[in-house]
Design a protein that fits this description.
The protein is of the alpha+beta class. The protein has one domain. About 20% of the residues lie in helices and about 30% in strands. The protein has 1 helix and 5 strands. Strands 1, 2, 3, 4 and 5 form a 5-stranded antiparallel sheet that branches. The longest helix has 12 residues. The radius of gyration is 12 Å and the shape is globular. About 5% of the residues are buried. It comes from Streptomyces tuirus. This is DUF397 domain-containing protein.
Length: about 60
């Protein structure tokens, strides 16, 4: 994707690998590694809040 600076993939144990990216306009992106053309887009603050909630265990019921 043009304009998106993708980070190295994050791979959980036995799970899919995800990538997080940002662009110069302040948007944040998250996608399955290798499928970056199918990403979710939001603000950096919204993505940061999502990651913090996941780390706090608030999405464990989805696993």
């Amino acid at each position: 994707m043009t304009g998106i600076n993708w980070e190295d993939p994050y791979c959980g144990e036995g799970n899919n690998c995800f990538r997080i990216g940002t662009d110069p306009e302040g948007n944040a992106y998250i996608a399955v590694a290798g499928q970056e053309e199918h990403h979710v887009t939001d603000s950096r603050d919204a993505l940061r809040a999502l990651i913090l909630e996941i780390k706090a265990g608030k999405a464990d019921h989805l696993l």
